[in-house]
Specification:
Blueprint lengths: L7 E9 L2 H18 L3 E3 L6 E11 H16 L4 E11 L7 E8 L1 H17 L12 E7 L5 H13 L7 E4 L1 E10 L2 E11 L4
Antiparallel strand pairs: 1-3, 1-8, 2-6, 4-5, 4-7, 5-6, 8-9
């Protein structure tokens, strides 16, 4: 897909989660939804991903440049193992705003890949990431109007809950994605993919 320089494209770079992992997350969300769903805007299951770099709204020609740069970055990394691991919240259990599933596995390789992606994007002129990398899979966002008592209930449920199954996979690609916002939530579309190890 090509974009003109006049286009503004909401973009990010991520590691995809295979369908079996998405199914576990979907079942987990269904359970959580039955407990406190009316207070949360859930991410569509097919939209769950492990973000390496969020770039926001960038010019269309920059999306094309990022797409061209990713294969060289990905070629320097062999595929590595990741696993789904537990549930959590940001910023804390008293006032949860983001609900997430955790990631474990070869965290050294994951952190090195994230840094390399950030460096490559910075070399193209986009801002570097200012926050420390905290790998997670966003499941939902708590609605702003949620009462304090309900916030604490959500925080407790996430702290005491767990995923509906175990899942590990070989991370073997990075995806460049674009996002379109609509009233029902974000939709993500694949722009380009690059295989780890250059395969």
């Amino acid at each position: 897909m090509t974009f003109s320089n006049n286009d503004k494209v909401r973009s990010f770079i991520a590691i995809p989660v295979p369908p079996d992992g998405i199914n576990i997350l979907k079942r987990t969300v269904e359970q959580l939804d039955s407990d406190f769903g009316r207070n949360v805007r859930w991410v569509r299951p097919e939209g769950i991903h492990l973000t390496l770099k969020f770039m926001g709204d960038i010019p269309g020609d920059m999306v094309t440049k990022v797409d061209s740069a990713l294969p060289e970055v990905a070629a320097d990394f062999a595929p590595f193992s990741l696993s789904l691991s537990g549930l959590g919240v940001f910023p804390n259990a008293r006032r949860p705003r983001v609900l997430w599933a955790g990631i474990t596995g070869d965290m050294d390789a994951l952190s090195a890949l994230q840094l390399a992606v950030d460096d490559a994007v910075a070399d193209l002129g986009l801002p570097r990431e200012q926050r420390e990398f905290s790998p997670h899979l966003t499941l939902g966002r708590v609605r702003r109007e949620t009462p304090e008592g309900q916030l604490r209930k959500i925080g407790r449920a996430m702290a005491e809950g767990d995923l509906s199954g175990d899942f590990s996979w070989q991370a073997d690609a990075v995806h460049l994605m674009r996002t379109e916002l609509d009233p029902a939530g974000s939709r993500h579309y694949l722009v380009g993919a690059a295989s780890l190890g250059g395969g």
